[in-house]
Amino acid sequence: MNVFGKAFKKYKYEWSNSLCMDDSDGDGESNGLELGDPCCLWKVGMTPMRQWGLSHPGDEKSKTNLNFSYAYTCVSKKGDESFWKFYFDDKRDFHYRTFSEDVTLWWNRTLTSFKANGISKFNPFGDGEDVFMRSSKDLFTALVLLCTVITLSILVFSHRCGLKVCLPLRSSRVLTLRDHAWIIFAAFVFTDWMSGLLHVVLDNPIMNTWPVVGPEAKAFQGHHYDPTAVARGPWLDFLREHHILVFLVMALYILLKPSSPGLMLFSLHFMWMSHVMMAAHRWSHTHPKYLSPTVKAMMDYGIVMTVRHHSAHHASYDCNFCIFSGWMNPLLNQLIHIVHWRSPLWLFILAGFAFVPIWATNKSIQEFLVFNVELPFRTLKSLGQRMCCKANEKGTVVPKGNSLQAEKKTQHFTLFVGGRENNVNTAIWRKRASVYSVTLGTVSTALIAYGLFASGSWKGTGFTRFLVGIHVLCMSVGCLMLTVIAITAYSWNVFDTNDSRWAARKASLRSVHRAANLLSVILFLVGIGAMVLHLWIKEHTLLHDKSAHTKLGLLTLFGILVQVTTGIMKYPFGGNAQKRFTWHGKLGWLVFLAMFFTINSGVAESGFFTNLVTTQIVIQLLLFWTFVTVAFSIRKMPPFIIHLENPLVFLCKEYLDIMPSMVSDRLRRLPFCGPCKRGSEEATISGKRYAA
C-alpha cells in the first residue's frame, strides 16, 4: 500500500477536508490538487472540479505542475489561468493553416493515395483501426455526396423545389416562405441537438469496446488530453469526421419519406449545417487571436458556440455536449442527470431522434404541434377580446365548438403501422394499457432488485446495505406497482358516462385507488425512514445532498403530502365526494411524473449498474414504456387513430409519388400495384395537371 493508501485508511476511507488538504507523497501539492479537487468540495456522486492534468497523490515523482493558489482560486473564486494554458497549449509549435492551404494539401494527398491504392482506398475492412477509420471516412464522404445529389434531384425534379408557380393549384407540395423559415430553424435546432447526442456517445468510455463505434470513440476522446489537436489537423479531414451520421440520416429520409418536399429540404439544410457544426467545434478550440472577425461575430450573436462555452465541457466532461450553437445545452445538461451520460442508452436515443423529422411530416402531428405552440397566443387573444368586448357580449352565448378545449379534442394522431384502420382511443384499449403498465412496472421492480443484490460496486456494512436495500425496494414497489395501480384504476371503468352502471363502477374503483395509494404511502414512509437512518449513521453516503435524485425525491415527497391531504378532504372515508380541490387529479399526474424521474435518476446515479450496463438499459426502456402506457390509460396523451398499413404498400406509394407521371401511371396499372392507387391519387392528378 502506498502512502496515499495508508492516509486514506487513516481517515476511515472517507474523502475528508483534512485528507484533501494533506500532501501524502510530499511533492509540494495537496492530495485534492492532484486528484482534481483543489478546493476540497467534492462529495460522493459529484463531478470533481477538474478532470484534466491529474497526477498520482501517492507518487512523489507524479505532479500536476500547476501554479495553484488556494486563496486566489477557492476563497476569492477568481479562477485559475492554468486551465487556459492546458486548453490552448501555446507551447506547442504549430501553424494554423488557412482553409485554402488545407484544400491544396488534402487534394494532393488524396490523388497520391488514389493512384497508389485505387478503389481499395474505400475498403473499410483493412488491417488495423487506423486503416478502418481512414478508409471509412473516404467511403462515407462519397456516400454523403451521393445522398446529396439524390435528395437535390428529388427536390428539383419531383417536387419542383416546392415553388407555387411550378405546381398545380392547391398542391400539398407547395412550400411557403413561412415553411422555409420553420424548416431552417428546425434544421438549426436539430443539428445542435444531434451534435450533443453524438458527443455524449463518443465521450462514453464504455463505447470504446463496441464494434464500429469503438474506434471513433477512442479517437474522439483523445482530444480531451490534447484539446488543441482539434485545431491542428487538416480542415477537410476534420470536417468529414461526422459523415457516417450524416449519411445514415440522409439515406433514412430518402428511403422512408421521399414524397415530402419539406423533409428533402430539411435534409439538405441538415447536411450543410452539420459541417458548420464541425467548424464551430474547431473554432472553439482555437485561440481567439487566430479567429477571423466573421467567426467572432458569429460567436457574439449566438450562431455558433463561444470558446468559453465549450471550455466548460473540458473542465468537467459532464456538461455542454452540444457543439454547434449550444442552444440545446441547458436541456441536455439536465437530461444527463436522468439518463447518466455514461449510459449506452444514449446510442439508442441518438438513433431514435433521427426518425423525429420523419414523424413530423405527419399532418396530424404537425397540427398537434402547431396547436400547442400557438395555444398561449390564442389564449391571450381570446382573453383580450373578452376584456375589450365585454360590454357588447353580455347576452352572447359562445358556441361550444369554438372553445379552445373543444378545438383541442378534435386533434388526433394518425399512425401508420400495417394492415387496417383501428381506433385505439377506446375504453377497452385504455383498460388493456393499464394492465400493460402494471406488468411493465412489476418487471422493472424485479430488475431493480436484481441490480441491487447482484452489483458489488457500492460499499457499506451489512446493516447499511440492508437499509439501502429497504429504501430501494420500498420506493420501487410503491411507485412502479402500487402507484401505477392507483393512478390507472379508473381506466377499468369501461361503461359510458350515460350508463347507469358507470357511477357504481367508479365508486368501487375509487376504493381500489385509495387502498393502493395508502399502501404506497406506507412503503414510502418506510423507505424514507430507512434512508434517513442510513444518512444519520453516515458510514457511507450513497448519494450526495445535491444530486438530482435527492432534489426530485424531496419534491415528490412534498407532492405526495399535498395529494394525500387533499384526497382525504375531497373524498372523506364513508362520505360523499366534495366539490373542491378540482386540481387534485392534475396534481396527481405531476407527482407521478416526479416519481418516475426520481426512480430513473436513482437508477442512473446510484452506481448499482456500473457493471450491469445491459440491465440498466432494459430498466430505463421499461420505465419509458410504463410511463407511456400509464399516460395513455388515463388520457394524458392526445387521442390518436392507428392506421395499419402494409409497409411495402406504404413505400410503394412513396416511390410512385416521386416518379414522373408517365412512369408512375404505367406502374399503377400493374396488378400488384393495385393497393398503391388510392394513396397516390393526389400525385396522379397533380402530375396530369402539370403535364397538361
Can you tag this structure with a few keywords?
mainly alpha; 4 domains; three-stranded mixed sheet; 29 helices; 1% strand
Write up this protein.
There is one protein chain. This protein has 692 residues and is mostly helical. The chain folds into four domains: 3-80, no CATH class; 99-360, no CATH class; 427-638, Four Helix Bundle (Hemerythrin (Met), subunit A); 647-691, no CATH class. The chain contains 29 helices and three strands. It has helices spanning 3-10, 17-21, 31-35, 70-75, 82-88, 99-117, 129-158, 177-203, 213-221, 229-232, 235-238, 243-256, 261-284, 293-300, 307-316, 329-335, 345-353, 356-360, 363-388, 404-409, 427-454, 462-488, 501-537, 548-570, 584-605, 613-633, 647-658, 661-668, 681-691, and strands at 413-416, 421-422, 640-643. Strands 1-3-2 form a three-stranded mixed beta sheet. Helix 7 (129-158) runs parallel beside helix 12 (243-256), helix 22 (462-488) runs antiparallel to helix 23 and helix 22 runs antiparallel to helix 25 (584-605). The longest helix is centred in the last third of the chain and has 37 residues, at 501-537. The protein is flat. Residues 75-79, 127-133, 394-411, 416-421, 539-545 and 678-692 have low confidence and may be disordered.
